[in-house]
Amino acid sequence: MKKKTVLFASCLLGTLAFSSCEKNLYDESKQPEKELQMKDLDIPADFQWKLTRTAEGTVSANTPTMVSLFLDEKCSEKEKIAMISVDAKSLGQQPDDLPLSLPTYVETLYAKYETENGMQSIPVKIVNGSFSLNIKDAKTTTTQTRAVTRGGDKGTGHDIEEDIRYSKGVVYHPKKDWGTIMYEDQFPILGDYDFNDFVINYKVKFNAYKEKGNKYMSNLMTIRLRIKALGGIYPYFPYLRLKEIDRDEVESVQITNPKTKDELAVEPMPNENLIIDCSDLILNLPKPAGSRYFNVEKTALVDTEELPEFEIEIKLNTAKEVKEILEDDEFDLYIARKDGDKTEIHANGIEPAFYKYPFNNPDLLPVYESDGDEEDDNYYFSKERLIWGLRVPGNVAHAIEAADFLKAYPGFKKWATSGGKNEQNWYGQGNADKSLLIYND
Fold first, then answer.
1. What is the C-alpha to C-alpha distance for residues 102 and 211, in angstroms, rounded to an integer?
2. Which of 139-148, 173-182, 208-217, 254-263 reaches the highest mean pLDDT?
3. Structure pTM?
4. Between β-strands 80-86 and 65-70, what pairing exists: parallel, antiparallel or unpaired?
5. Are 273 and 349 in the same domain?
6. Domain of 386?
7. 187 and 304 in one domain?
8. 55 to each of 15, 58, 320, 399, how far by Cα in Å?
9. Is 202 helix (H, G, I), strand (E, B) or coil?
10. Distances, alpha carbon 278 to alpha carbons 239, 256, 346, 347, in Å
């Protein structure tokens, strides 16, 4: 009897041990971790989601000349950020402060100018948001226009009149090539964060000249907009607000189709600032047959030549400092609905133009403090400090429909969770998953 008891106890212990091993085999703590989503990111409380910064510097030379500044060592035309005139008035005097909008990852600019022995390029270091360039071997050059006879450039795509208007100097934003703004369209609800609901390209060119004092001024700008993708389900339309330009400071606004040269009607909206309704950009989009969206599906791609564009030329009757109108927040390219409560979605930190913001929504960061003071930097932030509009200073590829943005751009997570300190060029460093992205030149 005793032997049977021992045998039974041994079998029982063996069964329990096997059961225990079996339980450990399927222990929940040992199962694969839940896939990380955008909403799971731990975003630092002071992160502003900025990929650009404004730097200021001085440029001087041994003789009046033209100097071009670039973001890359090859001095690629698409990476040009300015071409300025260093004139005789600045020689021997205090150089003028030149404001530039730069990607946060850029630590060196490249200056290109003409010498007696040909074109020369040199690096220019940026230290604490400042730079200094003193050219000692420049050749005298007083204009950037081309020497051609009237009508000599017909059919070449070269605009002589535009050369003349910008001959004193030009500053680009974010550069000569496109920048990109990508929106999620479910505000104030968090979306799926593929950032392809509304994707717009933009590039801005300011004429830049010097008046009395050491300031670069501008009274003319050309803004080019291009619809790149629409992957949202809600009827949003694009608008442009220039926050540092009042309507009564504007002499004229002209909108043209750069492909057909047709001039389009424009009527600035009733606001203190200059606001332009750009809704015509998304009318009659060339959607491929059977496609619900515009340019967000690999099976329904849209050729670059088919992407709709606007060119807006704005002349001011009162010149503005380039520094005032160059910063991202002053160039407010936003989307809005025309139905219901006319919801507007802006980049973070920008207040709406007409829309009644949902101040009491507990899922958003509070805009007003308990003492009634306005914390305007908190506009369009979720309580998790997520955003609905992402601005990138380059022609960034956008995600295909329902793609995981964190997988498409592996460096994005490190950039966001580090408060912008790491992976500042996550969009252009070459490790993106091209199978999840759509590219247009």
1. 24
2. 173-182
3. 0.86
4. antiparallel
5. yes
6. 178-441
7. yes
8. 72, 11, 18, 31
9. strand
10. 5, 11, 15, 17
Residue 378, classified by CB atoms within 10 Å of its CB into exposed (0-12), middle (13-18) or buried (19+), is: middle
Shared-domain flag, residues 191 and 151: no
Q: What is the mean pLDDT of the chain?
A: 86
Domain count along the chain: 2
Cα dist. 294→9, 148, 172, 196, 315 in Å?
70, 42, 28, 10, 33
CA pseudo-torsion sign 236, 237, 242, 246: negative
Q: Which neighbouring-strand residues pair with 68? A: 83, 112
Q: What tens digit of pLDDT does each residue of 40-65 get?
A: 999 999 999 999 999 999 888 888 89
- Whether 419 shows a pLDDT value over 80: the answer reads yes
Counting Cβ atoms within 10 Å, is residue 166 exposed (0-12), middle (13-18) or buried (19+)?
A: buried
Buried b (16+ CB within 10 A) or exposed e, 226-238: bbbbbbbeeebbb
The encoded tokens of residue 167 equal 């001959």
Closest CA to 348 of 393, 378, 326, 384: 378
Among 139, 171, 203, where does a domain finish? Answer: 171
Instruction: Find the range with the poorest average confidence among 91-95, 199-203, 244-248, 266-270.
Output: 91-95
Backbone phi, psi, residue 351, to 5°: -75, 150
Q: How far apart are CA 375 and CA 142, in angstroms?
A: 47
Contacts of 127 by beta carbon, 8 Å cutoff, 6+ apart: none
> What pLDDT score does 352 carry?
96
The residue with tokens 């670059």 is 304
Q: What is the pLDDT of residues 152-166, one digit of tens each?
A: 444 444 444 555 556
The answer to whether 283 touches 217, Cβ cutoff 8 Å, is no
Q: Using alpha carbons, list the distances in angstroms from residue 198 to 185, 193, 234, 239, 294.
A: 7, 12, 10, 12, 9
